[in-house]
Amino acid sequence: MKRQDTMFSIRVGNIGLLLHATSQLTEIADEVTVKLTPELFSMIASHRSSRFDVVLKLPRNFFTAYSVLLTHTSRISIHAFHTALLDASTSPSMTIHIHDSINRFILRFENSSHQQEKRHELIFSLLPDQDQDEDHFGKLDYGRFFGIHYQDFTQIIARFSIHDDETLLVTSTDSEVTFSTPARLLTLHKEGGKCTILGRGEDEMTQFLITIQPMMFFLGVAGQSQKVWFFKTVDSRGAMRVPFDTYVYVIYFNLI
């Protein structure tokens, strides 16, 4: 059955919030995968070095109206999307329409009476629906995971990035978390309130690798979140989850 525009009805009531949520993706990629399901609007970007992938998850409550009856997966230019939002950032709302027949996203920016003021068309490349779903990156292992405050995360970046150390070994036990390279080490203790360690992992120790480069990207992603959470995936990769009030970033590190 051919998909029709009527299968998708999406309205954004806070364009500034969407602009902020997507702005970090423009720093690491030229294109993103857009995946729409009945419950979630996702944008997936791969860093140009292929060292990590970023998934921006926008749930239904992020939108003023969200009705998606069919799964849609495609590739668009994140810079074109971001430019469109910048061009109409003062508009009270926008709607997103999908025309599969001409491979276009139609962004309609409205005034307070929901009348169209501006319109942008973005070309997309249709992808198979199963492309880059959650299983593609590896599910998060909740056996043991931990969270640290944003201030401590910035301390980690300051400690290691000045030496251009791109890969950090993360070691988590029941009582402490350590970030290290062959030359340097930084430990955060649970007892001192520097980290929150959760889960009931059978292993005494959990280890995985992450990167903190590019530094400005990681500072920007975590900048307005109170806590940054770290996981190991079921396929032994490191992952970082940064939650906000109405959306979340999940970063999967391709370092094993």
From TrEMBL:
InterPro entries: DNA_clamp_sf (IPR046938). This is Uncharacterized protein LOC111023105. It comes from Momordica charantia (Bitter gourd).
